[in-house]
Design brief:
The complex is a heterotrimer of chains A (about 325), B (about 500) and C (about 170). Chain B is mostly helical and about 500 residues long. Chain B has 21 helices and two strands. Chain B has helices at about 1-15, 20-35, 40-50, 60-80, 90-105, 105-140, 145-160, 165-180, 210-230, 245-255, 260-275, 280-295, 305-320, 325-330, 335-345, 355-360, 360-390, 395-410, 420-435, 440-465, 480-505, and strands at about 185, 190-195. Chain B is globular. Classes of the chains: A alpha/beta (about 325), B mainly alpha (about 500), C mainly alpha (about 170).
C-alpha cells in the first residue's frame, strides 16, 4: 500500500510538471497572431435540418475540407424558445473566444418579445453577415385561376378566413409577412403555424394550405417539379431565379423583407479573436462552394462585417420593433 | 419493371466499386457501435459524420451515411436488449421483451431475433421502395395535420395495454410523459411554456433521451445495484453462452415468428413513409399489434421473441420508408433523414420531385447501397453477438460504473448541456423510487416521444377547422384512421363489459 | 420506512408536483380560444389535472388498503441495500458536480476508483488499468472520432496540445 502511494505521488508530481509545461507553452504561443486553440462551438439558433442548420453544416465543411482552421468547428443546435436558449447561452459565454453563433431574424425579435432574458444584442461581437435570404409568395400550380397577385387577392377575399396561410410559428417572419399581406390587401387569411419551413412548403404542395411565404430554398424542389409557383417577391428587385415574379414594390406596396444569415461572436470576445473569425468567414464567403450555394438558393446580401454589421443590426432591430408593435405582439 | 431492374443493376455496379464497398462496411460497423451507445442513435451518427463525407464524391457519401444509418438502427437494439437502455426512441419497444429475455440468460436469442427481424424488415421495405416509390410519395404529400393526429391516436391506442395492473399509476405515467413533452416552447403561440422554476435549460424542452437514459439507464442500474447488492464479482447474466448449436436452434425457433416479422415490416414501411411519423410510432404500433394477434399474449413483456421481432422489423422498415418522402418531396420523415437532407444540399443535390429524373445515378446508387448495407449490417451484427455476450459476463462491479459513465456522457452528448445531465440524474433517482412502488414507466417514455407530434397536429387541425372536431371524420385519409383508433381505444372497455356480462351469467 | 408509507409520500409529492405544473401551465391560456381550439397552456394544464386525479386515486386506494403496494408493510428499501444505493447515488451526484469543475477526465477516474476499488473490492492493479484505459477510450471515441467536446473545467489547458495533435 505504501509502495503504491509513493508511486501515486510520483505520478502526480509528473503530471503537475507536465501540466505546467503545457500551460507555459500555450501562453507563449499567444504572442503570435490569435488562433483558436480548441474546437470552436458553432451554435445554431434553429433546429437540425432547417435552413440555418444546413448553412452551418456547409460552412463547417468548407472550413474543414479547405483546411482553413487548425481546429474543427462543431455545430450545436439550440432552437429552444425561438432562439432564446441560444441567446442566453451566448450571453453566459461572455468573453469566450471559442463560441460563435449563426443567427436569423429571431436575433432581433426574441429579445424584444422576451425582455426578461436580459439579452442586449449590441453587446454581441459582429463577425460576418454571410447572406440575406429572400421571401416570396407561393401558391399551388393547380390553382390555374391564380397567376398574379391581383388574382390571389381576389381568390383569398372570396374565401375570407377559410383561406389558409401556412407559416413557421406565431410571430415568426412568416407571420409578419402574412400580417403585412392581410393589412395591405384587406384580407382575412387564417395563419396556421407549423414546425419548420420545409414542413410549410410540403403543406402547400399537398394542398393542405392555400398559400405560403417560403424562402426559395424551401420551395425550390416543388417549384422545379412544377408543383408550386411564385407570385411575387418581398425584395427590392426581381430575383434572377424567378424573373416572372414581380416585387411588391413594383405592385405599389413599398415592402421589402429579408432574413439575415449572420455569424455572431460571444459578447466581449477579444479583438484579436474577432479579427480572426472575420477574416476566416470572409474567406468562407469568397469560396466557390459558398458562392455556388448563394446562387442556387437565390440568396442576396453582400458580406458585412464589423461596425457596418453592428449598425445594420441596430437598424433592423428598430424595424422589427415597429413591426411587432403593429402586430400587437409587444407594446 | 424491366427499366427499374436495369437502373437497379447500374446502381449495384456503383455500389460494388471497391471504394464504395469499403465505405459500406466501415459505415455499418461504425453505425453499429454508435447505435449501441446509450444516448447515441442514428441521428447523432449521421450528423457527426456528415463532414467526413466531403472527402468522397456525393454517391460515396450517401452510401456511407446510409450504411451508418442502417448500422445504427441495428445497434439500437443491442443496448436495448443487453442493458435495457434504449439508445434512441426507435428502440424503446425493443426493451419490453428484449430486456426480460436477456435477464433470463437468453440475450443471444434476443439479439439474433433482433438482427434477423431487422434484416427482414429492411429487405421488404427496400423492395417496396424500389418498385412503388412515386405513388406512395403522393400519399405522404396529402397527409396533413388531421391525418397526423389520427395516426398518433392510433399509436396511443396500440399501447394502452402496456401499463401495469394499477390503472391510476398507468394513467399518471402517460400524463406526466405528455406534460413533460410540452415543456419548453409552444410552437403554435410562439411563447415559452412550462419553463420550470424559470431555469433557462428548460427552454429547449425535455429531450426524450434524458428521460429514457434517466429511467432506463440510471434507474435500472440502481435497481440492479440493489439486486446484486454490490459485493462479489457476480456478472449481470450468468448462463448465456453462444455456440453454433445454440445459434442454429435460435434461428430455427425464429421461423415460427415469420408472420409477426412480416406484419411489422409492412406496417413499419407504410408508417415510415408518412412525414413526421417515422420509426418510433411504427415500432410501437407493431409491438401493440403483435400482442393482439399472438396466441400467447400473456408472454408479452416477460420475454416473448415476437415482442422483439415486431418492433425491430418495423423500425428498420420505417427508416427505409422515411427516406422516401425525403428523396421525392424533400420532406424528412425523421430527424435522421433531416440531416441526410442537409447533407444532400451540401453535396449540391436538390432533393425533391426532380431528383429521380435529374440524378438517377445517385438515387439508384443509394437504393442499391441500402440492399448492400442491410446485408453487411446483419452479418457484422451477428458476428459480434458473441462479443456482446462476453461483455455481459464482465463482473457487475466493473460493468456498472462503465454503464453509469456511458449514461452520463449519453445524457450530455445530444445537447451538450450540463442541465440535461442533472435532469437525467433526477429522473433516474425518482424513476427508481417510483419503480419500487410499481409505477409503470414505459408509458411515460413513449408519451414524451409522441406528445410533441400529437399536440401541434391536434391544434393545427382545430385552427384549420375553426375549432370543430368534425375535421377528423370528414377527410378521406383521416376518417378511417380516427375510427380505427377510437375502436382500439375502446377495446379494453368492451372487453371489460363482455367479461362482466359473462361472469354475471356464470354465477 | 415501509412500502405503505412510501406509497403515500410519493402520491403526495407527485400530487404537489402536479399542482405546480398546473399553476405553471396557466401562464398561457388554458381555455378554448374561439376559432382556434385549445390555448397554449391547455394541453399541459389538463394533463396535469389528470396527473393530480391519478394521485388522488392512488391516495384513495391507499386509504382503503387496496392492492399489493398499499398493504405491504415491508421495508421500502432494505437497510443493507439502502447503504449501497445511497453510496452509488451520492457518487453519481458528486461526479456530475465535478464535471464543470475538474472536467470529465478529472471526475471519471475518481468515480471509477471509488466504484471499482472501494465498492467492488477489485485489486488496485485492475482498478488503475481501467482508470487509465476508460478515459482514453472515451477521449478517442467521443472527442476525436465523433467530435463531441466533453466538459473540461479547469483542466482545459491540458488538452490544447492534444487538440493540436489530433485535429
Amino acid at each position: 500500500m505504501i509502495k503504491f502511494t509513493t508511486r501515486c505521488t510520483k505520478a502526480l508530481m509528473f503530471s503537475v510538471a507536465l501540466a505546467m509545461t503545457v500551460i507555459v507553452t500555450a501562453y507563449s504561443q499567444s504572442a503570435a497572431a490569435w488562433e483558436p486553440q480548441k474546437p470552436v462551438e458553432f451554435v445554431v439558433m434553429a433546429g437540425k435540418g432547417g435552413g440555418a442548420d444546413k448553412a452551418v453544416r456547409l460552412m463547417q465543411s468548407i472550413i474543414a475540407s479547405d483546411n482553413m482552421a487548425p481546429v474543427p468547428f462543431t455545430p450545436i443546435n439550440k432552437p429552444g424558445g425561438s432562439g432564446a436558449e441560444a441567446l442566453v447561452h451566448m450571453n453566459d459565454k461572455k468573453g469566450d473566444n471559442h463560441t460563435i453563433m449563426f443567427t436569423l431574424n429571431s436575433f432581433y425579435t426574441t429579445p424584444l418579445r422576451q425582455p426578461k432574458l436580459g439579452v442586449d444584442i449590441t453587446t454581441f461581437t459582429p463577425i460576418a453577415r454571410m447572406a440575406e435570404d429572400t421571401f416570396l409568395l407561393w401558391v399551388h400550380t393547380d390553382r390555374k385561376d391564380i397567376n398574379n397577385v391581383a388574382d390571389f387577392v381576389k381568390a383569398a377575399k372570396a374565401k375570407g378566413n377559410q383561406w389558409i396561410m401556412a407559416g413557421t410559428g406565431k410571430n415568426s417572419e412568416d407571420n409578419l409577412l402574412t400580417d403585412f399581406l392581410n393589412s395591405a390587401y384587406d384580407l382575412d387569411m387564417k395563419y396556421v403555424p407549423y414546425k419548420g419551413g420545409g414542413k410549410v412548403a410540403k403543406e402547400l404542395a399537398g394542398k393542405n394550405a392555400d398559400s405560403t411565404v417560403n424562402n426559395p430554398s424551401e420551395q425550390l424542389g416543388f417549384y422545379e417539379a412544377g408543383t408550386t409557383k411564385a407570385l411575387a417577391a418581398f425584395t427590392p428587385i426581381r430575383l434572377p431565379l424567378f424573373p416572372d415574379a414581380p416585387t411588391f414594390k413594383e405592385l405599389g406596396k413599398d415592402f421589402v423583407y429579408f432574413m439575415q444569415r449572420t455569424v455572431v461572436g460571444a459578447p466581449g470576445m477579444s479583438t484579436e479573436a474577432a479579427a480572426y473569425y472575420t477574416d476566416l468567414f470572409t474567406r468562407v464567403f469568397n469560396s466557390d462552394k459558398w458562392q455556388e450555394y448563394r446562387t442556387k438558393k437565390s440568396l442576396q446580401g453582400d458580406l458585412l462585417t464589423g461596425d457596418a454589421l453592428m449598425s445594420y443590426w441596430k437598424e433592423e432591430r428598430d424595424i422589427h420593433r415597429e413591426m411587432l408593435i403593429k402586430m400587437g405582439a409587444i407594446n | 419493371m424491366v427499366e427499374i431492374l436495369g437502373l437497379l443493376g447500374s446502381g449495384f455496379a456503383v455500389v460494388f466499386e471497391p471504394q464504395n464497398l469499403m465505405l459500406i462496411i466501415a459505415g455499418c460497423a461504425l453505425g453499429l457501435f454508435i447505435g449501441a451507445m446509450p444516448g447515441l442513435g442514428s441521428v447523432n451518427g449521421v450528423a457527426i459524420l456528415l463532414p467526413l463525407t466531403f472527402l468522397v464524391p456525393p454517391t460515396g457519401a450517401i452510401i456511407f451515411l446510409a450504411a451508418i444509418y442502417y448500422g445504427a438502427m441495428y445497434g439500437g437494439a443491442i443496448s436495448s436488449i443487453m442493458l435495457g437502455i434504449p439508445g434512441a426512441s426507435t428502440a424503446v419497444a425493443t426493451t419490453f421483451d428484449g430486456r426480460p429475455l436477456a435477464k433470463q440468460g437468453l440475450a443471444d436469442k434476443a439479439l439474433t431475433a433482433a438482427a434477423v427481424a431487422s434484416f427482414v424488415g429492411g429487405t421488404i421495405s427496400i423492395v417496396l421502395f424500389t418498385f412503388f416509390a412515386p405513388p406512395l410519395a403522393h400519399i405522404a404529400l396529402v397527409f396533413g395535420a388531421p391525418e397526423e393526429f389520427a395516426l398518433m391516436m392510433l399509436a396511443f391506442a396500440t399501447f394502452v395495454g402496456l401499463g401495469g395492473d394499477d390503472i391510476f399509476k398507468t394513467l399518471f405515467s402517460i400524463s406526466i410523459g405528455l406534460v413533460l413533452s410540452a415543456v419548453g416552447f409552444d410552437i403554435i403561440s410562439g411563447e415559452p411554456r412550462l419553463v420550470l422554476w424559470d431555469i433557462t435549460g428548460f427552454l429547449h424542452g425535455i429531450n426524450f433521451l434524458v428521460l429514457a437514459i434517466g429511467v432506463y439507464g440510471i434507474g435500472e442500474m440502481l435497481w440492479t445495484v440493489e439486486e446484486h447488492s454490490l459485493g462479489g464479482g457476480k456478472s449481470m447474466l450468468s448462463d448465456a453462452n453462444v455456440t453454433v448449436k445454440r445459434t442454429l436452434s435460435n434461428l430455427r425457433e425464429l421461423v415460427s415468428t415469420w408472420k409477426t416479422t412480416v406484419m411489422g415490416s409492412f406496417l413499419g414501411y407504410f408508417v415510415g413513409i408518412l412525414p413526421a411519423a417515422g420509426a418510433t410510432p411504427a415500432s410501437l404500433m407493431a409491438y401493440g399489434i403483435a400482442k393482439q394477434i399472438t396466441k400467447q399474449p400473456e408472454k408479452f413483456g416477460k420475454g416473448a421473441v415476437e415482442g422483439v421481432c415486431a418492433p425491430e422489423a418495423a423500425n428498420n422498415a420505417a427508416s427505409t420508408g422515411s427516406m422516401l418522402p425525403m428523396l421525392t418531396l424533400g420532406i424528412p420523415g425523421s430527424p435522421t433523414t433531416a440531416i441526410l437532407l442537409g447533407g444532400m444540399v451540401i453535396w449540391g443535390l436538390e432533393p425533391g420531385p426532380r431528383l429521380f429524373v435529374d440524378h438517377s445515378d445517385f438515387v439508384w446508387g443509394l437504393i442499391a447501397s441500402l440492399y448492400a448495407a442491410n446485408v453487411f449490417a446483419v452479418l457484422i451484427n451477428v458476428a459480434f453477438i458473441p462479443v456482446f455476450i462476453k461483455i455481459l459476463k464482465t463482473p457487475f462491479t466493473i460493468l456498472a460504473p462503465i454503464i453509469f459513465i456511458l449514461c452520463l456522457i449519453g445524457g450530455y452528448a445530444p445537447t451538450q448541456a450540463m442541465h440535461d445531465v442533472w435532469l437525467m440524474l433526477v429522473f433516474g433517482i425518482v424513476g427508481y423510487l417510483m419503480r419500487k412502488l410499481d409505477y409503470p414507466l414505459a408509458p411515460a417514455v413513449l408519451a414524451i416521444v409522441l406528445g410533441p407530434l400529437a399536440e401541434p397536429a391536434l391544434r393545427q387541425s382545430l385552427i384549420i377547422s375553426d375549432g370543430s372536431f368534425a375535421i377528423f371524420f370528414n377527410r378521406v385519409y383521416a376518417a378511417p384512421i380516427t375510427i380505427v383508433a377510437i375502436l382500439l381505444l375502446c377495446l379494453p372497455l368492451f372487453k371489460m363489459v363482455y367479461d362482466r356480462l359473462r361472469k354475471g351469467k356464470a354465477t | 420506512m415501509t412500502v405503505r408509507t412510501a406509497e403515500l409520500l410519493m402520491a403526495i409529492m407527485m400530487g404537489a408536483f402536479s399542482i405546480y405544473l398546473m399553476v405553471k401551465s396557466a401562464e398561457l391560456p388554458i381555455g378554448w380560444i374561439e376559432r382556434e381550439g385549445p390555448g397554449g397552456g391547455a394541453w399541459p394544464f389538463w394533463l396535469s389535472a389528470v396527473m393530480l386525479f391519478s394521485c388522488l386515486g392512488i391516495g384513495y386506494n391507499w386509504f382503503r388498503r387496496h392492492g399489493r403496494i398499499a398493504t405491504s408493510e415491508k421495508f421500502y428499501i432494505e437497510p443493507h441495500v439502502l447503504a449501497d444505493v445511497t453510496a452509488v447515488t451520492v457518487a453519481l451526484i458528486v461526479t456530475v458536480g465535478l464535471f464543470s469543475v475538474i472536467g470529465i477526465y478529472g471526475a471519471l477516474p475518481l468515480f471509477l476508483i471509488f466504484y471499482i476499488r472501494f465498492l467492488g473490492k477489485h485489486t488496485w492493479r485492475l482498478t488503475i488499468t481501467l482508470v487509465i484505459a476508460i478515459p482514453v477510450v472515451i477521449f478517442y471515441f467521443f472527442e476525436i472520432t465523433l467530435k463531441i467536446i466533453l466538459p473540461k473545467g479547469i483542466t482545459e489547458p491540458l488538452f490544447i496540445p492534444l487538440y493540436k495533435m489530433f485535429f
